[in-house]
Each structure stands twice: as structure tokens, then as C-alpha cells.
Write a structure and sequence with these properties.
The N and C termini lie far apart (109 Å). The chain has a domain of 140 residues: Carbonic anhydrase (Beta-carbonic Anhydrase, Chain A, 3-Layer(aba) Sandwich). It contains ten helices and five strands. It has 269 residues and is an alpha/beta fold.
């Protein structure tokens, strides 16, 4: 007996090998280009230049917020290439002082990325020497052209401070320092009167904080010569839109859908 098997078995084996050999080139072609062949890849779009003026920085933020509202996010500057680019040095175009609220992340609601913003977050945008110094850092040392104070709808920190001040009670631990910092906004809201005093206090805190930073001894000279602008805005949790309350700059260009930005009140004199 032939050790390789009977003739029929040998014929089947030979036919199977031939079929397999014929299929290999097709599988190789389907898997991709031959080794050494260059694959055509679309070139990545160059990122827009860093805004160098207050108007340009303001426009960039408001355009990003419009994309957030529309759901047409671009997620810029959020990849390993950007990480490597800013690893050695940074040059943000804006400073955002926002609340600690988990629903108000500045980088997301302005559709910005890594290295674009200095972000500070305190309860109710409360300020003190350390916070103020941190806000000053970018504009004073690096030419950052925009400071944006961002408060928001249904602020828990403001609500807690309002109730404590109204009832003459102390908040626990260091939270009482928060109530003290928000006292001027409370006084303004109570003085204005009207419904929903907590929301009035939120808006008062945004305006007072932004106006105070604009008049700050170190920032005021930069504001006067047009190198820096200080803007205060109110973020709606319901709509995702930022409404400008103080320090408005020229309207940003329309968003991708062609929707104009909301009008804003003129900057105070």
C-alpha cells in the first residue's frame, strides 16, 4: 500500500491545496495594500490660530458655545498630537472662572480643548486673593486676552449661601467662608426685590465678580489699553446657552448652522 494513501485520497488532497493556493492572493488583496505600497490618507485640517485679541477670544468661545447648543461639536485640540504640542509650553487664549458644579464644565460647553483655557472653579465663583491672583496669572504674565466669569442656573452654592444669610445661620465648616464671599451678591439681590431671589443672586454674583476683576489694580491697565477684556456670562442648564451679562464684546460670527449669537448688553462705562 502506498504510504501517502489511496489514489482517490491523493487526488482530493491535491485539489484542496490548489484551491487554497488560488484563494491566498484574493485574501491578501482584500486585507489591504501590498507591503511597501503607500496608503492614501486624508490630511488633517490645520487647527485655527490662537486668538490674540479679546474680540477674537470672545468670538471663539461663543462660537464653541453655539456648537454645544446645536450639538455640532468639533472637539478641537483633544488628541495625542495636541498633547505633545503643549507638553513643553502653553499659551491659552482665555481664563474662565466658573462654579464647581459638575454640570458646567467650561471646556465642554465652549467646545475647546487641551491648552486652550486656564480654568478656575470655586463655589459660586467666589473670589479671594489666591483666586484673584490665579485669574491674573495668564493676562499679566502671558498676554491671555480674555477673562470670562461664568455663573449658572440653579447654583447650589448660591442657594446655600442665600438661605444661610437670609436666616442668619452659619454654614458648616469652611462653607461659611463661601457665604461671606457671596454676601455682596446677596445684598444686591435683596435690594433689587422681585421673584426668585436665588437666581437674582446668581446673576448679581456674576456681574459683581466680573466688574470687580475688570477694575482690579493689575488687570485694569490691560483692560484700558484693550489688551484684555473681562466678560461675565450666565449658563442655562436647560438650554446649554451662555448669556452675556456684563462686559459684552462685538457679537461672535454665526455658528455652523448659521444661527446668530444672542445679543448682549453693552459693556458698562
Amino acid at each position: 500500500m502506498d504510504s501517502a494513501g489511496p489514489p482517490r485520497r491523493k487526488a482530493l488532497l491535491a485539489g484542496g491545496l490548489a484551491a487554497l493556493a488560488g484563494a491566498l492572493p484574493a485574501c491578501s488583496a482584500a486585507a489591504g495594500p501590498r507591503a511597501g505600497a503607500k496608503e492614501a490618507r486624508p490630511e488633517a485640517a490645520a487647527p485655527p490660530p490662537r486668538p490674540a485679541t479679546p474680540d477674537a477670544a470672545y468670538a471663539r468661545l461663543m462660537e464653541g458655545n453655539q456648537r454645544w447648543v446645536d450639538g455640532s461639536l468639533q472637539h478641537p485640540d483633544r488628541d495625542p498630537t495636541r498633547r505633545r504640542l503643549v507638553a513643553e509650553a502653553q499659551d491659552p487664549f482665555g481664563v474662565v472662572l466658573a462654579c464647581i458644579d459638575s454640570r458646567v464644565p467650561p471646556e465642554l460647553l465652549f467646545d475647546t480643548g487641551l491648552g486652550d483655557l486656564y480654568v478656575l472653579r470655586t463655589g459660586g465663583q467666589a473670589v479671594g486673593p489666591v483666586v484673584t491672583g490665579s485669574v491674573e496669572y495668564g493676562p499679566v504674565t502671558g498676554g491671555t486676552p480674555l477673562v470670562f466669569v461664568l455663573g449658572h442656573q440653579r447654583c447650589g452654592a448660591v442657594d446655600a449661601a442665600y438661605k444661610a444669610l437670609r436666616d442668619g445661620k452659619s454654614l458648616p465648616g469652611n462653607l461659611q467662608a463661601l457665604a461671606r464671599a457671596l454676601r455682596p451678591a446677596y445684598d444686591r439681590a435683596v435690594g433689587e426685590g422681585g421673584p426668585d431671589p436665588v437666581e437674582r443672586m446668581v446673576r448679581a454674583q456674576i456681574t459683581l465678580t466680573a466688574d470687580g476683576l475688570r477694575a482690579n489694580a493689575d488687570l485694569a491697565p490691560l483692560v484700558k489699553k484693550g489688551a484684555v477684556a473681562v466678560v461675565g456670562g450666565y449658563y442655562s442648564l436647560d438650554t446649554g446657552r451662555v448669556e452675556i451679562l456684563t462686559g459684552a464684546l462685538p457679537p461672535a460670527t454665526p455658528g455652523p448652522a448659521g444661527t446668530p449669537q444672542p445679543s448682549a448688553p453693552p459693556a458698562p462705562s
